[in-house]
From TrEMBL:
Residues 12-145 form the RNase H type-1 domain. GO terms for molecular function: nucleic acid binding; RNA-DNA hybrid ribonuclease activity. This is RNase H type-1 domain-containing protein. Keywords: Signal. SUPFAM superfamilies: Ribonuclease H-like. Residues 1-20 form the signal peptide. InterPro entries: RNaseH-like_sf, RNaseH_domain, RNaseH_sf.
Length: 227
């Protein structure tokens, strides 16, 4: 959405404009916030904390919760409800094909837009001094201090990140403890090789032969995630 378009949108007195945002703290807490404006005046806001999740999931949840709140205020408006967020990927999924992560959230959002109509999703530029967007950002960041919901299940995006991260951490720990002294003296950084050289492909099922012939150590990492 252009700046001119946003100004015109905010000038419509009978339109509800929902600004939503997601946040991921340095400690890994995912949270969301939203604020609802009418005629350039904030009339309602909300925020919350997610379980193990990524900022993308928080963006989607913030948009859904903001829409639900706006629908409860629908008697205040006779025109459109606009959902504005600064994450283009999340906005695209809200309007089109849902992502695999937080798919239930996207599908619920789309079901609400279908059943109620007159609901539009708009991308707005982040950190551009748009009051509603800045308010949603602050609400989302503040919600990271809330307790994690009891029994919250990890999202697919979170599990994928952990699946990529754990093998690297395991390899780094092994390298720190087992790297040859000549490598330590050179202060070489560890590099995790995910594929065997082609000449050793027939041996990938035989770790002992792999180590003997290649000179590399075979490392198996088991990842256990919540279900």
């Amino acid at each position: 959405m252009t700046v001119i378009g946003l100004v015109l949108l905010r000038a419509l007195p009978l339109t509800l404009v929902v600004y939503s945002d997601g946040s991921l703290s340095s400690e890994g807490a995912a949270s969301y916030g939203f604020t609802i404006h009418q005629n350039n005046i904030p009339i309602f806001d909300g925020s919350g904390r997610l379980g193990p999740a990524e900022v993308f999931d928080a963006e989607a949840t913030g948009a859904l919760e903001g829409l639900k709140a706006a629908l409860n205020l629908r008697e205040l408006a006779t025109q459109n409800i606009f959902i504005c967020l600064d994450n283009l990927a999340a906005a695209t999924c809200l309007r089109g094909t849902p992502s695999e992560s937080s798919q239930k959230v996207f599908l619920e959002f789309q079901a609400l837009t279908t059943s109620h109509g007159a609901i539009q999703v708009r991308w707005v530029p982040g950190h551009s001094n748009i009051p509603g967007n800045e308010q949603a950002d602050k609400l989302a960041k503040a919600a990271s201090s809330l307790p994690e919901p009891e029994g919250a299940q990890p999202t697919l995006a979170y599990l994928r990140r952990i699946a990529r991260q754990k093998p690297k951490e395991a390899f780094q720990a092994w390298w720190s403890a087992s790297a040859p002294e000549q490598y330590k003296r050179l202060n070489l950084k560890q590099t995790c090789v995910y594929r065997y050289p082609p000449k050793f492909w027939p041996l990938y099922r035989y770790p002992d032969k792999w180590e003997k012939l290649s000179g590399y150590r075979y490392i198996q990492v088991d990842i256990h995630t919540a279900t």
